[in-house]
Design brief:
The protein is an alpha/beta fold and 311 residues long. Helix content is 41%, strand content 14%. The protein has helices at residues 46-61, 86-92, 112-132, 149-155, 172-176, 186-190, 192-201, 207-212, 225-237, 241-257, 260-281; strands spanning 7-9, 20-25, 30-35, 67-72, 137-142, 145-147, 159-163, 167-169, 205-206, 218-220. A 7-stranded mixed beta sheet has the order 1-2-3-4-5-7-10, sandwiched between helices. A hairpin with a 4-residue loop joins strand 2 (20-25) and strand 3. Helix 3 runs parallel beside helix 4 (149-155). The radius of gyration is 19 Å and the shape is globular.
Length: 311
Amino acid sequence: MASPDLTSVEPDGGDAPQQVVYETLDEGRIARIWLNRPEAQNAQSRTLLVQLDEAFGRAEADDAVRVVILAARGKNFSAGHDLGSEEALLERKPGPAQHPTFRSHGATVPAIAERTYLQEWHYFFENTRRWRDLRKITIAQVQGNAISAGLMLIWACDLIVAADDAKFSDVVGVRMGMPGVEYYAHPWEFGPRKAKELLLTGDSIDADEACRLGMVSKIFPREELEDKTLEFARRIAERPTMAALLIKDSVNAASDAMGFTEALRHAFHIHELGHAHWAAYNENRYPVGLPPNVPDWRTLGAPKPARRDEP
């Protein structure tokens, strides 16, 4: 359990629902950020993403914090982008519940492709890249399903710890006719051929396979995940902060020298080409694939596990 000196602090957000919870542990040496929409499987509304960005920024600004844990309440880590909840629909529409970011950053541009490009650049891509380069060591604590945009959150972290029931998938290709999520780290995290397989099938891999691929560092029983992740974070927090930062930057720089950041930027523009294609193809100008071109994602259920002995 959390140490006795835990302090729970809600992020600033006015009257907005608290979809992210921020707390510090161990006299402030460890910050833990919780995705706090368990009833929605921690699907990522705009409110959640903006509050998450504020929480990461808060941890970055706090000189006492050495390690940041990104965790999630409930059964699943994250079901990805929130495409249809009442909250998400309301925050997009004009009215008292509209999130202010739907009145800026390209949201009012009439051209669909340009509007989608600018909004996704700011709130799906550039924010994730910023979290990847946070001036702290970050650890993702994952249980249950991490689907599509759920992967973006954990891939932005330096280390990933998983429960033994964790499953990882990107269903965007199969269910929306898109090339994958906006932060396209799939070839780096899965390997090129496995990335193609998982994107073309929408299948999931479990924690053991993710560990074998080098994506996940530790696997713990579900009931021990919180305690064991905190114990792991405490080990990392023992490192001098400058040494930890230099290690992080050295490894990130090596990935960048191999083309990681440039590949991300290129893949983001391919993603936006996918949106432009569907906006032109669909009579209603909706910028993703719709039935009958793709199956109805609302009825498909959980992704099928990827097995080497099954088609």
